[in-house]
Each structure stands twice: as structure tokens, then as C-alpha cells.
Amino acid sequence: MQISALADDLRQQKKMKNRYDTSGRWFKGGLHLHTVRSDGHLTLGKVAGKYAREQFDFIAVTDHWSLPEFNGERDSLPLLVIPGIELDGYDTLGVYYHVLAIGVSLRLAIGIRNFTKVMHTAYAQGAVLIWAHPHWTGNTPRQGLRHKFHGMEVYNHSSHCENGSGYALSHWDSVLDRHPDFLGFATDDSHFVPGQPYWKGGWVMVNATACTDDEILDAIRRGNFYATQDPEFKSIEYARNKVKVETSPVVSIRLIGPRRVGKWINVAEKEFLLQAEFELPPDWPYARLEIEDATGKRAWSNPLWHHG
């Protein structure tokens, strides 16, 4: 049996399934931002307007311990606004976290400020739980495995601008060694503090059939999106143990696997890559893609298959 066929057979035995279906449309979304309802400095309407002018299709409002109040204006906003919240607190072992709950019910009972209880309630309601800026918070990878997070912020733009603690790629790979379905997100964490306009630095591109709450959240749960600082994945195709990608002009395309092993394609000066193809080693429990443009900005796929 050829190695590619053997690898496919192994993945079938392990119930590994291709994560990406990029046949829909790509929708641009910001998943971590704040308004005057917590420590942001702009109203929801003004924040929505700023992101709409930057060609975002949706945002999630994630004020600290405060659910959004639409006051009947949701349908009149210039883009889709998904209800969310940022929770922070100590779990039962005394570990401190920040967690985003995206797609949370507006009936979520938050008055008690019990971090663990509210987080579990949000999860039960179907919200997407994102472990926020773990490097900034001081969490370890092991601590990220203690709760039912869907994924983590691998890049938080505000934390990066503030003190260089925005990247958590080493956290992600460490978690993936134990939890190979863990998703990666890039966010702004925008507050619009005067003189500190940290935004337009990290977002997700979600592939879905329509830009609605249900379609966007379902695609996010399945990991049918990528995180980016600007470079684009045009398509991601996986078949017969090979992955083929088409991208915006980039200088590097990397395939990253467990134990920090990987493959990469780089280009000579003043040249660009638009596509690449890799054969996936049969013994890798996960593989993810990273692309980088000439300015050093990067984008990251999720693990290429999920474990059914």
C-alpha cells in the first residue's frame, strides 16, 4: 500500500475528518472588542460603524461582565453584531483566566459574578468559549486544558501593542499536542482609548453560506475559518493525504506539526507565492498552516482535520 493511501486509512480509523470546506464565502469578523458598557471608549453604534468602513462583515461585542443592549437598533447597524461577553475570574483551583463567550444568550445570568458557573452556563447555551490572551494573563498551556474552551487567541493585537504579550503560538502548539482539535483565533481586543487606537490588527475569516448568527457561529464551532493579521487563504483543500492552498501574495507558506516539526516553502527576494501543496506525514495527530507576507504579517489555519 502506498504511504499516502496508508495515511488516509489511518486517519479514517482515527475518525479524522477534513475541517475545511471553502466552497462558501469568506466573511471578515472581529471577535473581541469593547464599548462604553465596560472599559471601551465608543458606543456600540460608533464601533460598528468603524468596523463596517473597514469592510468587516460581522463583529462580536465582548464587554467585561456586561451583555450588549441593542435597544431595537440591531437590524439598523451596518454589519452583523453577535452578542458576546468577556468573563474573568478564578476557577476552583485558584487559576485566573479571561474568557470570551461568543454567541451567548442575552438571558445569561451574570449578576452573581461566579466565573466558573457563568462560563459553564454559557457553554451549555452553545456559546463559543475562547481562552483570551493567555500570555498576557500569565496562564500556562496546561491550565488551558482544564476547561472546555473551543480555542484560544493565538494573537491579541491590543496585548501585542501594549507590552508585546499578544502572541500565544507556543501555548497553542503545546495544547495541540494534547488536544489536537483546539482552534486558533486572532483578535483586536479594541477599546479605542484616546491615543491608543489598537485595532485592525487581528481578525478571523469565516467560510459560510451566509452572514447570519447561526451560519457564522456554526462555521466557527467547526473551525471553518482562519486567523489573520492581513494575509489571506483563498482556499484550503485536503485529499489523499495532501493539502493544497491558494493564498494572497506571501513570501512563506509553512506546514506545522507536532513537536515543532514542519515543512515550509520560502521565496527569493521580490518574488511571491500564491499556492503550495504539502504531503501530510501519516503519524502527525495534527497539522496547521501558517503564511507570512513581505511585511511580516501572518495568518494561521486551524488544525486541518478534526477528530470525530
Written overview of the protein:
The chain is an alpha+beta fold and about 300 residues long. The chain has helices at about 5-15, 45-55, 115-125, 135, 140-145, 155-165, 170-175, 215-220, and strands spanning about 15-20, 25-30, 60, 80-90, 95-100, 130, 150-155, 185, 205-210, 225-230, 235-240, 240-250, 250-255, 260-265, 275-280, 290, 300, 305. The strands form 3 sheets. Strands 8-7-6-5-4-3-2-9-10-17-16-13-14 form a 13-stranded mixed beta sheet, with helices on both faces. Strands 11-12-15 form a 3-stranded antiparallel beta sheet, with no helix packed on it.
Overview in brief:
It is built from 8 helices and 18 strands. The protein is an alpha+beta fold and 308 residues long.
Show the helix and strand layout:
Elements: H1 3-13, E1 16-18, E2 25-30, H2 44-53, E3 58-61, E4 80-90, E5 96-102, H3 115-124, E6 128-131, H4 134-137, H5 141-144, E7 151-156, H6 157-163, H7 169-176, E8 183-187, E9 203-208, H8 213-222, E10 225-228, E11 233-239, E12 242-250, E13 252-256, E14 262-266, E15 273-279, E16 288-292, E17 298-301, E18 305-307
Parallel strand pairs: 2-3, 3-4, 6-7, 7-8
Antiparallel strand pairs: 1-18, 2-9, 4-5, 5-6, 9-10, 10-17, 11-12, 12-15, 13-14, 13-16, 16-17
Radius of gyration: 19 Å
Please tally the helical runs, counting DSSP H or I stretches of 4 or more residues.
Answer: 8
Query: Based on helices, strands and strand pairing, what is the structural class?
Result: alpha+beta
Distance between the termini: 25 Å
Strand content: 25-35%
Unreliable stretches (pLDDT < 50, length at least 5) are 1-8
Mean pLDDT: 91
Largest sheet: 13 strands, mixed
User: Main sheet: which strands, in order across?
Assistant: 8-7-6-5-4-3-2-9-10-17-16-13-14
Amount of helix: 10-25%
